[in-house]
Amino acid sequence: MSLLNTEVKPFKATAYHNGEFVEVNEEQLKGQWSIFFFYPADFTFVCPTELGDLQDNYEEFKKLGVEIFSVSTDTHFTHKAWHDSSETIGKLTYPMLADPTHTISRNFEVLIEEDGIAERGTFVVDPDGKIQIVELNAGNIGRNAEELLRKVKAAQYVRANPNEVCPAKWEEGEETLSPSLDLVGKI
């Protein structure tokens, strides 16, 4: 079953965020756009490049009213240790959620049970707490924050304009389509 258009299931987690441990739950998502950015583990290879790429684009996400939550099955203490020891991770200013109980990873169906780690999964959640975008990558394939930013803009556009759709490669400001019988077979 697809998670698209389903509500984020209840969770409670501790995050490392701006030098503090903070509690996060699904109720805090309401009223804002959110990205859950799952990655396999702290102190690895591809993961810091992705998290650094998100940070490089974080201000653009914030301008769109989007909060980013990176999530791994590591503890919040491990997140702090990684933050304190890595130049790349030390620059992160978005919350790093800890999921040592695997609750969040199971809720988003990205937990690799036999390994106890999460798949490389990205989920965009709308202000109603519903999942609008689901993306899964194999563990050895990194993601691109600029492409994610484009997808968020498209999701926000169609939410604000429910009678329109965004075609392939749509960029902000470009033409959209208004589905109708007149378009069938003409594109």
UniProtKB/TrEMBL annotation:
UniProt function note: Thiol-specific peroxidase that catalyzes the reduction of hydrogen peroxide and organic hydroperoxides to water and alcohols, respectively. Plays a role in cell protection against oxidative stress by detoxifying peroxides.
Protein name per its UniProtKB record: Alkyl hydroperoxide reductase C
Catalysed reactions, as listed in the record: a hydroperoxide + NADH + H(+) = an alcohol + NAD(+) + H2O
Active site: C47
Subunit structure: Homodimer; disulfide-linked, upon oxidation. 5 homodimers assemble to form a ring-like decamer.
Locations listed in the record: Cytoplasm
Keyword Protein transport: no
Highest taxon above the source species: Bacteria
Recorded GO MF terms: NADH-dependent peroxiredoxin activity; thioredoxin peroxidase activity
Keyword Cytoplasm: yes
The entry's keywords: Antioxidant, Cytoplasm, Disulfide bond, Oxidoreductase, Peroxidase, Redox-active center
EC number: 1.11.1.26
Gene Ontology terms describing biological process: cell redox homeostasis; cellular response to stress; hydrogen peroxide catabolic process; response to oxidative stress
